[in-house]
Structures are given as C-alpha cells and as structure tokens.
C-alpha cells in the first residue's frame, strides 16, 4: 500500500530547450517561452504558478540560443534606474516582480533528446526529494489550483502525480494517454501509460497535460529508458515503467481553465481570453471585439 511522502516538494523544473518551430520566424531570435501573453511572457506565468504553490526554487533546463531567458529573470539596473527617474512606479514594480518571483537556476540540456532527457538534467538540483515539472505550453489560470492539488495528492499518497484532461478520443493520439482505476473521481489511480497512441488503441480519452509531481525514483528509471516515440527519451515511458514496478502513480483530472500557447491559433485565443478578463484592458477590448465580429464580412444572420 502506498504511504504518504515524508519529504515535502520544494522545487520545480521547467524545460525550456525546445526550438519553437511552430512560431517561426519569430522564434529565430526570441525564445518561444518569452513570447508575450498580453504583457508578460508565457514563462513568467509558469514561474508565478510554481511560486504560488510554495515552490520557491525553480530550475530551467535550457538549450542553445536561450540566453534571453536568463537575461529576463536577471536584474536590469539601467532600466530600473530609468523607470525610477521617470516616476513610473507601476512598470518598475512589474520589472521587479519578474526577477523576484522565485529563485531561478539554469542548466543546459546540451542536446535535445526529449522531455525525459530534459528532466534527467535536474537530478543534481532535485536530490532525493519529490519535485514538480511544469511545461511552458500549458498555462493554468491562477484561479484554478491544479498544482496545489497535485502536491497535496503526492503528499498523501507518495509516488508520482500527473495532470490529466479529457481531450476526447478523437484527439488522444496527440498526447500521452493513461489507463485508470476509480474513473469518475478527480483523483485516479493510473494503471498504464502510452505516448501518442493510435486513436483505436488508446486506453482512454484522458491525456497527460503539462504538470507533473514526480518521485525522485524517476531519475533512475530515466537513465535506463531507451529512446521511444520520435527517437526521444519519453517521460511517459519512464512513468509507465514505474507503474509496472508497482510504484504509485496517480492522476488529477483537471476541468478548470487552461490556455494552450504551443499552437498559433490557441496562442491567439489565450491572449484574447486573458486580456478580455483584465480590469484595465477587458472593457474596451470586449467592446471592440463585439464591433469587430459584427462587421466581419460574410457573417450570416444565424451567427448574429
């Protein structure tokens, strides 16, 4: 029987070594993770989420051409001095917030060999404690406490915990999929995992999304995991091995607000949704959107 974890989760790992090819040519010079979502880069939302959940130490696993990420989380005295002289307190506070949100560390992946390989680079940073992994393409609304719930489940049950979303069986081949017990609850026991299965072979329509709380035992498994789908070392394969060995792996089924910034169309939707809900931008943006949609050419009466 699984036992509660005696070690608290204190650290988060954020892999940011991807090339961002879906956003070329913008990502030739700007890391995908720094593309603005309204007026903050997507990566800042992720770090803020970790900090809200009590994870004050963050390791970013970077790659070549990602130096701008380190610069973003560093102090910029010249900019701060200029804002102080202008008396621009609001922007100065925003600049400070981006550097003070958490203690951020960096390590290079060296070569892109998959998510599992990226997570493995965090072994020395993590040590023998459970840790969180947050992927930058998934933004979770600050009003939904998914990561906090996952940390609680890990503390109660031990082992590892993944975030799950019902994406419909027609879309499951784009994700890691799971087989579960206790279906119908928002906390389920995972009995099997497979990376991007064919639709007719998927064990369920529950997909793994970009939040994990992992036991440190995953590092030993990752070192032994051969390249899988796409020739990469898959974290899903390592978790499947843990399940086969009888280690507890649970899932938290998420039904809250999630914004996908990994696809161009979904990125645009995320920017509009988040901006439309802000007090400073929302009212004029919603009014403009209503006028814009009303004036779209070819808009039929049925859409009015």
Helical region count? Answer: 11
Q: Calculate Rg over CA atoms.
A: 21 Å
Helix content: 25-40%
User: Mean pLDDT, rounded to whole units?
Assistant: 87
Measured by DSSP, the beta-strand proportion falls in 15-25%
Oligomer description = single chain
Order of helices and strands: EEEHEHHHEHHEEHEEEEHHEEHH
Strand order of the largest sheet: 5-4-1-6-11-8-12-10-9
- Strand tally is 13
Largest sheet: 9 strands, mixed
Give the overall form.
globular
Low-confidence stretches: none
* Structural class by secondary-structure content: alpha/beta
Compute the separation of the termini in Å: 57 Å
Descriptors:
304 residues, alpha/beta, nine-stranded mixed β-sheet, two-stranded antiparallel sheet, 13 strands, 34% helix
Quick summary:
This protein is an alpha/beta fold and 304 residues long. It has eleven helices and 13 strands.
Describe the structure.
- This protein is an alpha/beta fold.
- The chain is built from eleven helices and 13 strands.
- The protein has helices at residues 42-52, 67-72, 77-86, 89-100, 115-120, 123-126, 146-157, 218-224, 235-244, 264-276, 282-294; strands at residues 11-15, 36-37, 40-41, 57-62, 103-108, 131-134, 138-140, 160-166, 176-181, 187-195, 206-214, 249-253, 258-260.
- The strands form three sheets. It has a nine-stranded mixed sheet. It has a two-stranded antiparallel sheet with strand order 2-3. Strands 7-13 form a two-stranded antiparallel sheet.
- Helix 3 (77-86) packs antiparallel against helix 4.
């Amino acid at each position: 029987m699984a036992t509660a974890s005696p070690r608290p989760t204190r650290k988060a790992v954020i892999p940011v070594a991807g090339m961002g090819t879906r956003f070329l040519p913008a990502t030739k010079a700007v890391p995908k993770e720094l593309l603005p979502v309204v007026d903050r880069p997507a990566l800042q939302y992720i770090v803020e989420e970790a900090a809200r959940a009590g994870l004050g130490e963050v390791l970013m696993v970077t790659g070549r051409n990602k130096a701008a990420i380190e610069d973003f989380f560093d102090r910029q005295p010249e900019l701060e001095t200029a804002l102080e002289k202008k008396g621009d307190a609001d922007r100065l506070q925003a600049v400070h917030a981006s550097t003070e949100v958490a203690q951020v560390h960096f390590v290079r992946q060296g070569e892109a060999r998959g998510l599992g390989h990226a997570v493995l680079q965090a072994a020395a940073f993590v040590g023998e404690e459970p840790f969180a992994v947050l992927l930058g393409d998934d933004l979770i609304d600050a009003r939904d406490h998914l990561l906090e719930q996952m940390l609680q489940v890990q503390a109660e049950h031990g082992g590892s915990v993944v975030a799950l979303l019902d994406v419909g069986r027609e879309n499951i081949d784009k994700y890691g999929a799971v087989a579960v017990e206790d279906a119908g609850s928002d906390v389920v026991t995972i009995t099997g995992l497979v990376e991007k299965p064919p639709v007719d072979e998927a064990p369920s329509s529950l997909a793994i999304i970009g939040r994990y709380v992992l036991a440190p035992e995953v590092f030993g498994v990752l070192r032994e995991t051969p390249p899988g789908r796409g020739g990469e070392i898959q974290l899903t394969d390592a978790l499947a091995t843990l399940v086969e060995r009888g280690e507890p792996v649970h899932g938290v089924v998420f039904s809250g607000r999630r914004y996908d910034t990994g696809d161009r169309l979904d990125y645009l939707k995320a920017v509009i949704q988040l901006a439309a809900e802000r007090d400073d931008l929302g009212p004029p943006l919603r009014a403009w959107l209503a006028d814009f949609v009303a004036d779209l050419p070819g808009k039929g009466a049925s859409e009015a």
